[in-house]
Amino acid sequence: MTKIAEIVAKSKKPTFSVELWPPRTPASAAKLEEALLELEKLHPTFTAITYGAGGSTREKTHELVLRIKRQTSIEPMAHLTTAAHKRSELVAILERYRSAGIQNILALRGDPPLNGGAELSVGELAHAIDLVELARSVGDFSIAVAAHPEGHPDSPDLVADRIMLARKLELADMAITQFFFVADYYFKLVDDLERLGISKPILPGVMAPTSVKTLERMALLSGARIPERVRERLYRADQSAETIKEIGVEIALELCDELLKRGAPGIHVYTMNEAVTTVEIYKGLGLG
Predict the structure, then answer these.
(1) Among the options 6, 19, 133, 194, which is catalytic?
(2) How many folded domains does the chain comprise?
(3) β-strands 202-206, 47-49: how paired?
(4) DSSP code at position 83
(5) Which of 269, 141, 150 is nearest to 204 (CA)?
(6) What is the CA angle 148-152-154, rounded to 5?
């Protein structure tokens, strides 16, 4: 059994991990297959597999997690959300993972789909901390939770956000942050948690902004701010899609380099199922 939190905590060199989406169409399935082939060559510490809150990709997530576990050298971490689920449904999902030998879970409340404006019902478990407690009762899982360096958009203020995150991390084993663009936000988060008695691994999540439209939507959902210096580099009307991708990789590399130099335990890349940009980040950091 492989507990990702223990690997991250004990690693003597920075870890490198990625997030992937389950495919929704034949075209996206083919893209995912290409990404998996390329990303496996990087020997990532783990890959987190997203989950459609409310069940939109529920089975696809389960299938992909199991296939990665059984057919690749990458250790999967399965996302699981409380939104729109009964407690009994969550128990059943966790039991299926336990029976299949999946030991790593990312416990989330759940957000609306990226390209839809539908509201999500709360579910019987209202908060991610409730899912952490449930997973602990079902099996010997290594449990990660989400962290928002700039504060969760639903939190009344940063103090309340940090207190809630500390409560989650008293029960969970590690955290992975939402994407951000200013390294100081991450290190303030770590310092705030240490003052609250939490010293568990906090992996910074990084995204190369390769699409302005997607960036705007994800920033709105996550509460991440887009700094003016990032806007100036990305929002030029005469830039091609290819140029924007190149700039996005540069922005991500600059952030990753600063994070690692200042002591972050690793880098977690939101790949958007784009292997090329992730490989460029990996090579640019000299991790290969």
Answers:
(1) 19
(2) 1
(3) unpaired
(4) T
(5) 269
(6) 170
* Total residues found in the chain within this entry: 288
User: Measured between alpha carbons, how far is 280 from 169 in angstroms, rounded to an integer?
Assistant: 32
The rounded distance, in Å, linking the Cα atoms of 230 and 277 is: 17
- Backbone torsion region of residue 236, taken as left when φ is above 0, otherwise alpha when ψ lies between -120 and 50, otherwise beta: beta
pLDDT tens figures, 59-89: 889 999 999 999 999 999 999 999 888 999 9
Q: Tell me the CB-side half-sphere exposure of residue 34, using CA atoms within 13 A.
A: 15
End-to-end CA distance of the chain: 25
Q: Is 270 helix (H, G, I), strand (E, B) or coil?
A: strand
Buried b (16+ CB within 10 A) or exposed e, 9-19: eeeeebbbbbb
- 109-143 as b/e: b if 16+ CB within 10 A: bbeeeeeeeeebeebebebbbbbbbbbeebeebbb
CA–CA dist 142, 4 (Å, integer) = 7
Q: Which amino acid, one-letter code, is at 110?
A: G
| Parent domain of 271 | 4-284
pLDDT recorded at residue 72: 95
- Measuring CA to CA, which residue among 22, 94, 25, 10 is closest to residue 58? 22
Judge whether 19 counts as a catalytic residue. Answer: yes
Q: What is the CATH number of the domain that holds 101?
A: 3.20.20.220
Supply the pLDDT for residue 210. Answer: 86
The average confidence (pLDDT) of the chain is 91
Task: Find all residues with CB under 8 Å of 56, minimum gap 6, and list them.
Answer: 113
Which structure tokens are listed for 173?
Answer: 């084993």
- Walk along the chain (288 residues) in steps of 10 and give the mean pLDDT of each run: 92 96 88 94 96 69 94 96 91 96 94 56 87 97 97 93 97 97 98 98 95 86 88 81 91 98 98 93 90
Predicted pLDDT of residue 47:
97
